[in-house]
């Protein structure tokens, strides 16, 4: 197996560790004050990232769990990964993975809204079990081990990992908080000829202090942080200031982009920008937001990229819309090379119309050149969806209390896949029988000018006891190139995930997967333990 493939496997292993760590979760919603329950909706999807129409100003914090509801039943649990004032990016940590735009999401605010006065800071703390969230410093520390081996060459790698995550809110009764995300790994690669190589990395994904007093409309963050209000800027070292009102918000930021591989500090590229947002009042049943702004990115004193953007999100019971448009401004030297001074560079629209609670019509259009996707895992199905991301799609979904049925037609263009047409169908059931069984199956048939293909996936999950979750998953991807005669490429994969929670603070996870493909067969194993405090 080539060394480049080892690196991809190593990256997938580190990402898988992040997903399994996330599965430790926070305190279940059912154990919190039900009188404070709020709802929002899924606004749009980007790969495995699920965006919802609530953010820091609505009481969310990073690491919090949200519940996706279907006909008043919990279909999936999401974990907040990144936050802006009115939006949150989440990943699925349990339940259904075929989340739809417009689906209802339930949550309990973990901190007071920044737009509503509150006396929570003066409320005495209740006696009881030690809290794993809320005011003070909480976090998690984990150790894990990942190994992969290829059958035909007896090559592979082993990778011990460790990580530390700290989340602080109102530390010592002050408005100061913190966010730290530190991950380290050591990869030992064994080649087919028996030689080996060692590669170690320690990466800082977050290291920031923030000021956000209860009830205050001013919020600021200083340090390494994620910026979700501007879709084309993610991780940066610098400062962010937000002013939040009941109907209007303003934000400004400036900083430097870290090194792309090791995430070391770098001053090569500087980013500056500002944005304004008009939005609905917190708690309104009809949620909407319109954000506009401009960003300038510079390298060595010269323009790297300068662009403006507009984002619209609407979440009501019968209708959900998310739309993004970016417009780049090009200097004279790019105009001389043939570019227009103003170029409409990225357009994305996702919408869902629900005339009835059980019926939804969905549509999307995507011509974005690049999308930053925070992958927790990679398999042939995810690789397929990434390759055929750009284009236009339409579909229908039927959602019952326990049963889901959907279909989609997609016309893809651009990217590495070229022009293609695909037809997909999904069927699933949620939390049936005393074991809380759930399953989701998918079939996709696609064609482009060079090949015909099929993709089939199946996932079955169960909760035999409250503290144990088991997942079985697998799939088949087959491609036939008629122009090359019998040149058929087939990928199959199957795996098992087993998670155990102990006394709320301890979490153990084990995972095994085998992938068979034309380039060889690979076995992967993961084991990890996490302590939350």
Describe the structure.
The chain has 533 residues and is mainly β. 6% of the residues lie in helices and 59% in strands. It is built from 3 helices and 28 strands. The chain has helices at 3-22, 332-336, 380-387; strands at residues 38-46, 49-52, 65-70, 73-83, 88-95, 104-107, 136-150, 156-169, 176-190, 196-211, 218-226, 235-244, 248-256, 269-279, 287-299, 302-315, 319-329, 342-356, 359-366, 391-399, 403-412, 420-432, 437-448, 451-465, 468-481, 487-502, 506-517, 520-532. The strands form 2 sheets. It has a 22-stranded antiparallel beta barrel. It has a 6-stranded antiparallel beta barrel with strand order 1-2-5-4-3-6. The longest helix has 20 residues, at 3-22. It is globular. It starts with a helix and ends with a strand.
